[in-house]
Every structure is written in C-alpha cells, then in structure tokens.
Design brief:
This protein is an alpha+beta fold. A hairpin with a 5-residue loop joins strand 10 and strand 11. Helix content is 27%, strand content 29%.
Length: 469
C-alpha cells in the first residue's frame, strides 16, 4: 500500500482552548460591613487631616496676608479748609478761656473794678434795646480801666506752657544716618538730627512731617519718641517744592506705653490767623529738638506765587531754625504752618517766615498716602476783570514757566494764558489748583493756552507729561 508523504497528509484541525471568566466570589455580609467601616475610617481620617491643616494654615495666612491688605486699604484723608472761613475754632476757645481767667481780679482789687458788681444781664420783659446799651458801655469801661497784674501774665504764659507741653508729645527726633568711607577706606557713619511732628496715625503706622534734609541721601532713618523709644523709619514721600517729607514708623515697633504717650498734632486752619495773634514754635526753634519759643504773627502775606498755585506766608517775630525743623502752633495747640528759608532772600525784615498749612493740606494728604505730588511747573496769577475788559482772555497768566519743568518742556511760554487743563475751563487760580490736584504723575494732560499774536490771541493745545515735585 503506497504511503503518503507529509505534504500529502490531511491538514490538522486547530485545537480549541477552554476560555473561562474568573470571577470573585460574592462578599459575605461580614466582609461588606468591614469594608464599609474601613472606608468610613479613611474618610474620618482625611477630614481630621484637612481640619488640622486648616487650623494651622489659617492663622499664618491671617498673619502674613491680612495686615498687608489692611495697610493698602487704609487711606489718610485731611479735610481742606475754606479760605472764607476765618473762625479760629478750638484755638479761639482756648484763648477765650485764658482771657476769662485774666479778667478775674484779685480779692484785694478795688471793688469798683470787679466784674461781679456789674448789673444783671437778664432783662425784664418789655425792656427795650436802648436799656441794654448802657450795660455794654459799663462792661467796656470796666475792661478798659482794669489794670493787669503779674498774676495775669503768669496765667497767660502758664496756659501757653501747658499747650506747648501737650503738643510737644507729638514732636520726635529724626536721625538721618549716612554711611561713608574716609581716606583710608574706613567706614564712617554720620548722623543729622532733625525735628519731626506726628500728623496722623492709621493704626499700622505713624506719619511724621519733617524737613526734606532728614531723608535726603539717608542710608537709614531712626526716629526717637518723647519717652526715648527708638524705631526705624521709612520714607513715605517727599516734596522738593515745600522742602518737606513724610516719614513712616510702623506701630508694631513700639510698645503699648509708648503708643499711649504719643500725641498726634491736629492740623489747624491757617486762614484764621491774623496779625497780632499769639503763636508758639515747636520742634527745634533753638536748633535743639524739643525746644520752644513764643511770638506773634507780625504780618500775613496773601496770594504769594508758588509753583502751580498761590499760598499765604505767615511772618512772625520768633527766632527759629528752618533746616532743623520748626513748626508753628496756635493757642489751641493746632499746627498752622512750618518755618521755611525759601523766601529769606526776598525778606529784608529779619522776620521768620512760615508756610501756611491750609494751602498744603491736599499735598500733605497725597504724601501721607505715599503718592507723588503732581507737578506742571508754572507760576502765575489770575487775569483781573480790568484786563479782561481790555480783551485779555480770562485764565492764569504765566509769569514764569519754570525751566526744565513739564510745562516748559512741552512748549508753554511766559506770557501764555492757561484757559484749560484736562478738559476743564480755568478762570481762577483755585480752578487751576483744583485741577492740578486731580492729575496723576506720569500721565499726559492737555493744557490749553491763549498766546498773544500780532493782532489777537491764538488758542494752542499742548500735551504735558505730568511730573512729580
């Protein structure tokens, strides 16, 4: 029988393997309960871990995040004064109370000059105005005939002494520390000493007004308070035009007793100051911090041209030191200005000149908030009605465009009349100052001027980059 070779064999059938699905056996009731409690334990453990993490992280977040947010949200506001308001407010009250003490005669005085013997000021019903006139004349006569004694003088100066002692708690020493090297490369540390006055407190910091020299080129600033406590100060902002700066001291550097001892000087209304008013000088009038002096207002100069506005200057017979820092207060203990040497060359009288604070409150507010003071750099005066009738446009006549200032660089010239700033019409110096206060350093503002040509005035527009003082 013939045999078949391998190639002729029948093909083998493919073998089929068993395929089966392996399944877990169903959980028993005990296993299900065990798994439930296992997941429950894991959930509780995770929740406890999350709660512990929250409890640890939250205080740290409040410590490092919330104070910064709070400091940024605090805005210092300084109310402006109305030039038409000449009431002295608290200062007048303080003066009146001292005068009442002065008019009380000693027990040994002549009874005819005693105010207690004056007729009763209450009038009966039906009394006429003519019947009250003799009473006023009697009062005036008694005051004119009253002879002041040494006791009255002591009472007056005693009252002022108390005011000064209370206000002096708001005076601090500002140490300007500069680090240099000598000829032999040895480190040398020099310190300048200036007076500063605390003008505001935000709860997180104390804001101190001090001469610009205290912070100029200073490597570090130290502030010493009335109880001798010392703290680090930082520059908040400075103004080269007024020559003043704001230094900030963090409250957390001071202990509770020091904070309780500190007095913040209230900013008074310098518009109310008149010739003959009694004032005191604090800070460093004698060149030494915490010295003081008395004097009177000898003269009030109004509408003095300054950069981007007008101001009042207070002339006083007090000898002072402007570079070390001297501040004037009224009889109510309110600060009404600070001594400056900017106008010394213009004054041959030898009197001390102080900048009136009411004209600088908007500037102090910006400085206290760390904002640069906007600056255009012009000196000018209002066009009078008489000139307006002659055909001169109403606005601010530029008497000087300060060289290298923003307005000068933009092309504005002496003799131009500013009639618009930032889309607002300008007629008075108050209009101009209010509009400049709204500007922001670093921005560009449109300034409209009227420039005189051969036959007429021509309107020109300039794009001025707002600077910082």
């Amino acid at each position: 029988m013939p045999q078949l070779n391998s190639s002729e064999k029948e093909p083998e059938k493919k073998r089929q393997f068993i395929r089966e699905k392996i399944a877990r056996p169903p959980m028993t009731r005990r296993q299900a309960v065990g798994r439930f409690f296992a997941w429950l334990f894991i959930a509780v453990l995770g929740g406890a871990a999350a709660g512990a993490s929250y409890a640890v992280v939250t205080p740290l977040a409040k410590l490092y995040l919330e104070p910064q947010a709070t400091e940024e949200s605090i805005v210092v506001t300084i109310p402006k004064d109305d030039p038409g308001d000449t009431q002295t407010g608290e200062s007048q009250t303080g003066a009146d109370s001292s005068m009442e003490d002065m008019t009380e005669p000693d027990s040994g005085e002549d009874p005819e000059t005693s105010l207690g013997d004056l007729p009763d000021t209450d009038t009966e019903e039906g009394s006429t105005e003519e019947e009250t006139e003799p009473l006023e004349e009697v009062i005036q006569s008694v005051l004119e005939d009253y002879t002041h004694s040494v006791r009255d003088i002591n009472t007056l100066y005693g009252t002022m002494r108390d005011v000064i002692q209370e206000a002096d708690r708001g005076i601090v020493e500002v140490h300007s520390v500069k680090r240099e090297v000598d000829w032999f490369d040895n480190p040398v540390e020099t310190a300048g000493l200036y007076a500063g006055v605390i003008i505001a407190s935000t709860g997180q910091e104390f804001l101190i007004l001090t001469p610009e020299g205290a912070v100029e080129q200073a490597d570090s600033i130290k502030v010493t308070f009335t109880d001798g406590s010392e703290a680090d100060g930082t520059i908040k902002q400075k103004d080269t035009i007024s020559g003043m700066a704001i230094v900030s001291v963090a409250s957390d550097q001071l202990d509770e007793d020091t904070v309780m001892e500190i007095t913040t000087l209230k900013l008074g209304n310098s518009y109310s100051m008149k010739q003959g008013d009694l004032v005191a000088a604090l800070g460093a009038p004698a060149g030494v911090v915490h010295s003081s002096a008395y004097g009177t207002i000898s003269y009030v100069a109004k509408n003095v041209q300054v950069s981007d506005g007008a101001t009042r200057l207070l002339y006083t017979d007090i000898k002072s030191n402007s570079k070390a820092g001297t501040f004037l207060i009224n009889t109510g203990g309110e600060m009404i200005g600070w001594v400056t040497d900017v106008y010394d060359e213009e004054s041959a009288s030898g009197l001390t000149i102080a900048m009136a604070i009411s004209d600088y409150k908007s500037i102090l507010e910006k400085m206290s908030n760390g904002q640069p003071v906007p600056y255009l750099g012009i000196r000018g005066q209002e066009v009078s009605e008489a000139k307006a009738l002659e055909g001169v446009p109403m606005g601010i006549y530029v008497t000087e465009c300060i060289p290298e200032g923003p307005a000068y660089d933009a092309g504005i010239q002496n003799g131009d009349i500013i009639v618009g700033v930032g889309g607002q019409d300008i007629f008075t110096m108050k209009d101009y100052q209010n509009q400049v206060e709204l500007l922001t350093s670093g921005t560009v503002v449109t300034v409209v001027v009227q420039r005189r040509g051969i036959d007429e005035y021509k309107e020109l527009e300039y794009q001025v980059s707002v600077g910082a003082r």
